[in-house]
């Protein structure tokens, strides 16, 4: 009887390596089996090793699951796949193809033969914006550099001039690199960059922080190298929507030192910005004395545009009227304020205030009387009464008026526009408001009603652009008065080319639908230009020549004419299709039955006729010269963040989430 062997467990035998048996052979057996010599069986130099056997995988036996647990697990897995964080969103539209796809002769113009000034204007137009603190500006600057380096030698000088006319300052290194370039010897530079810079817009974040391995930027040292500088602004992110404080390191400059640097190189500014965050917090009297001295200097003698930001009530200081003593002699003049210092600019025609709460009472009346453009943005204290008082003193020269995000300003001032602003050409009003803090939702209007029902706006005959958006907090009667004033004054508004009104009216949806249909159709009928479709044969010279040479197609009487256009081609004699006698009699009987209406249908038709009487009534005057007429009427409540359909997915998730491409997955079993 053979001895008993030890029995191993299944797990141990599976995890233990299997041994391979090789029977030893002898040399004599080999020589006897074959009649070859010993040299034929010399060992090879390369030794082939046996492959290591793979380890056998051990899988645990799955526990049976009930149908409810398996269904819940499958549903949870599908949800995890559908809402995975970081998953790429499916594109809603195909990528935009860049390039001209219209008709062309195939002839490339000789761009090299164009004058340098013309090429420069082309590059400036194609690269806008180039000096903004955005990704598009960086891409445009890179495109100009590539054009100057590698595309064409004739484009090099024009592309560089377009780039350095307003050099981009997109990071903390760019100001230092520009200063190093301007200080290089003239012999080592391709062109004289110092005289090419005409505009310098710098974000405060690029100068507030020191670049690695560089000292803090000394602004007077930079501007002293730019003799042709005309426009300069130091921008702050706080004075852009939503107009809230931003965490930026404090950075200020000395106005006196900067003015001296301008005078040393003979700079004559055309655009300047006073920002309260970039000026040291001194006494308001000393601040306005410095500003008045700067405005009286030669540097600001030809200033056309001035932007003032961040002057609040704490900085408010305006002198009172000059007092006289007992003998009738005038006493010493009081120190100047913000408005009086601005009035010392002799050539100022464009003035902008952003987030300035110092505009109160008679502040606007102290401004220069020759202003042609005025912009008030996020000024909480401005009212319609203040605007009317300003129109009485300075409204005769005003051509453009921009009023954005002023919570206390309604449209009551429009009743006197025709009389007090006879030269007004552009009126833009944005009634969208922002909260002062993130934690509080106080983006509400501070007036009782946008336009009282008794007020009827009047419009000057020189008006070219009218834009009122987010009009809210008013009655349908007041909105009707505004729309009717535009229709009635159409014979006088012959210069109007753009009409944009977005109104929010809180009325029932049936009334709002009829109100919207009426005024959108009437204003479009009166003002919208009806342009015919362009001639398809004028796309190129070759296309025009082919159309002229091609003989006109003469249709015969037997052929039928098809047309996809909406215009019906009238013919002198139009044959009606022949109908059978039976069809004609059946249609006549149906008409006789429906000829007598019921009393209910009579009342409904009468109401419908009263509502749509405006549609059958012809307008007194058709202006028909506006290229853009955008009228929107809804009942939305404007909020700081307006969500539209573009913010939501209007399509299914990409692909079938249940399809796994035949991958092997664990199959959830069921217990039967």
UniProtKB/TrEMBL annotation:
Residues 647-672 have a biased composition (Acidic residues). Residues 561-573, 632-642 have a biased composition (Basic and acidic residues). This is Uncharacterized protein. It comes from Pseudocercospora fijiensis (strain CIRAD86). Residues 1-19, 54-72 have a biased composition (Basic residues). InterPro entries: LRR_dom_sf, SRRM_Domain-Containing. SUPFAM superfamilies: RNI-like. Gene3D superfamilies: Ribonuclease Inhibitor. Residues 1-74, 318-337, 551-611, 632-672 are annotated as: Disordered.
